[in-house]
Amino acid sequence: EVQLVESGGGLVQPGGSLRLSCAASGFTFSTYPMNWVRQAPGKGLEWVSYISRSSSTIYYADSVKGRFTISRDNAKNSVYLQMNSLRAEDTAVYYCARESAVAGEYYFDYWGQGNLVTVSS
Amino acid sequence: SYELTQPPSVSVSPGQTARITCSADALPKQDAYWYQQKPGQAPVLVIYKDNERPSGIPERFSGSSSGTTVTLTINGVQAEDEADYYCQSADSGGTYRLFGGGTKLTVL
């Protein structure tokens, strides 16, 4: 059974930092691209970042570029999101999501349960 | 910039057909995908590659496309289908993934 379990969320002050982790199991992690998607309270889904199988290709949404860093450790079956210079508008539930392994197909077939990040003083 | 536009809400009675549209601001020639999200839960993929259903998704869910608009159709809507639905695609270069604003489906 495919499982994605996020951790590391919580309350942080504006300007602070937080690192989210997503532990994967039930599939060959190194063969799938991974993404982070967030959802502000009462709002829609917003794609945040993408990382390829080997970490050779990384993309960010404009809203987080320069502040967030995605990474992965295939030996530990984990993907991470380092979030710096956090703002109130970064408050959201953050989901890690597995992307299709087929090139040119960009859908997310499995999602974690989500992890709440609250940026507030 | 490339945007996906969905109606904020759609309402149908049980047993009727619900159609949720997603319009592309430009045509990137990428496939569109659909997710269902119930309150307090993570999104679930219901349609991929325009009209493919993952294992476990009922046959009443289907997708179609025409020009710059893709449509999620739910035939014989059931009370359990009440949820938020999001379309998703990517830009023409496959760099940015993006979501529509979401449509709240209400089963009357």
Quick structural overview:
The complex is a heterodimer of chains A (121) and B (108). By secondary structure, chain A is an all-beta fold.
List the helices and strands and how they pair.
The complex is a heterodimer of chains A (121) and B (108).
Chain A lengths: L2 E5 L2 E3 L5 E8 L8 E6 L5 E7 L6 E3 L7 E6 L4 E6 L8 E8 L8 E4 L3 E5 L2
Chain B lengths: L3 E2 L3 E4 L5 E7 L8 E5 L6 E4 L13 E6 L2 E6 L8 E8 L6 E3 L3 E5 L1
Parallel strand pairs in B: 2-10
Antiparallel strand pairs in B: 1-3, 3-7, 4-5, 4-8, 6-7, 8-9, 8-10
Mean pLDDT of chain A: 97
Helix content of chain A: under 10%
Tell me the helix content of chain B. Answer: under 10%
In quaternary terms, these chains amount to heterodimer
Explain this structure.
- The complex is a heterodimer of chains A (121) and B (108).
- Chain A has 121 residues and is mainly β.
- Helix content of chain A is 0%, strand content 50%.
- Chain A has no helices and 11 strands.
- The model of chain A has no long low-confidence stretch (mean pLDDT 97).
- Chain B has 108 residues and is mostly beta strands.
- Chain B is built from no helices and 10 strands.
- Chain B has strands at residues 4-5, 9-12, 18-24, 33-37, 44-47, 61-66, 69-74, 83-90, 97-99, 103-107.
- Chain B is globular, with a radius of gyration of 13 Å.
- Chain B starts with a strand and ends with a strand.
- Classes of the chains: A mainly beta (121), B mainly beta (108).
- The A-B interface holds A 35, 37, 44-47, 50, 59, 61, 95, 100, 104-109, 111-114 and B 30-31, 33, 35, 37, 42-45, 48-49, 54, 84, 86, 88-90, 94-102.
